[in-house]
Amino acid sequence: MDPIVEVVALILGFTGWVMVGVALPNRYWKVSTVDGNVITTSTIYENLWMSCATDSTGVHNCREFPSLLALNGYIQASRALMIVSIVMGTFGLVGALIGIQCSKAVGENYVLKGRIAGTAGVFFILQGLCTMVSVSWYAFNITQDFFDPFYPGIRYEIGEGLYIGWCSGVLAIAGGACLTCSCRVAREEKYNLPYQARGTVYSGPAPTRSVVASTYGRNAYV
């Protein structure tokens, strides 16, 4: 596989991994809507860990969620998926640094490098999928409450933290797909070696028995 493609895939995976780390502590996963309000004195915004409020003077006040078990199930699941995403991205980043062709690790064994790069690509894909599921599930609950006419609580809109998460998932999946292809290409190169006979290189398929018999005669076989 082209080393440039591997480097681009590594950059995409690394960028996606960094953006997961940015999205996870971001406070603006959902922001209270101003739709239908003539005068807005305060804005409430939340993420997976805390709820914050700011008034018209710019004063911020945040409090962490007091109990894990008292949270909604989708918030707990989103927390777990985001943490798993970071772990998968870490494994993928380490594997990609070892498996790319320009790396000095593992020596000149390019077949092994391709397999390591392919495994790293799988980790990046899992990272992207975990991130996409987490932020999409969170966004689904926001939109469901927003359009529910009987919802009695505060209506929220999608915040910037979810957009960062979506971008992170797309980059991680794209980088992982490129690295996974490197494993397949390396395996094909292993089994498509040129046929050698008597010091000559024959790039086509191996000669059949009849061709060899006509060349060397019947006494060549017992």
UniProtKB/TrEMBL annotation:
Entry-linked PROSITE patterns: CLAUDIN (PS01346)
Biological process annotations from GO: bicellular tight junction assembly; cell adhesion; digestive tract morphogenesis; tube formation
Keyword terms: Cell junction, Cell membrane, Membrane, Tight junction, Transmembrane, Transmembrane helix
Pfam families according to UniProt: PMP22_Claudin
Subcellular location(s) of the protein: Cell junction, Tight junction; Cell membrane
InterPro entries found in the cross-reference section: Claudin (IPR006187), Claudin_CS (IPR017974), PMP22/EMP/MP20/Claudin (IPR004031)
Chief site of localization: other
Name of this protein: Claudin
Species name: Oryzias latipes (Japanese rice fish)
